[in-house]
Amino acid sequence: MVGKKGFTLIEILAVIAILFLLTSVAVPMVVNIIKNAKTDVCRSNSLELERKYNEYLYMQETIHTEIRFLEYKEQFFDEICPSGGEITFRDGRVICSVHVEGDGSDEVGDSGVPFL
């Protein structure tokens, strides 16, 4: 084997096995990071909409109606939930049908902000 260069079948299989193991760990982590980012964006947008809509109701000296909320949301906010959840307003809170607080995904305080 003097003067012959190249990889053996065992070496190539070992590299493929290592790459498979790294990929099987990395892909779920990336998917989880993307899911968490979408949840964070939705909660942040929902809190902003909630704050501004409640301020709007106060400044206009009016009460909440579904039609008023939908008109306000469409006028001032393009997309609240990046996952396409339905946004509603109940009991003074903006709620997403996909990212419901208390779903056990993480601990959330009274303000809707995760504990550090």
Automatic annotation (TrEMBL):
Keywords: Competence, Membrane, Transmembrane, Transmembrane helix. Its main location: other. The keyword Ribonucleoprotein does not apply. It comes from the Bacteria. InterPro entries: N_methyl_site, Pilin-like. SUPFAM superfamilies: Pili subunits (SSF54523). The chain crosses the membrane at residues 12-34. It is found in: Cell surface. This is Type II secretion system protein. It comes from Niallia hominis.
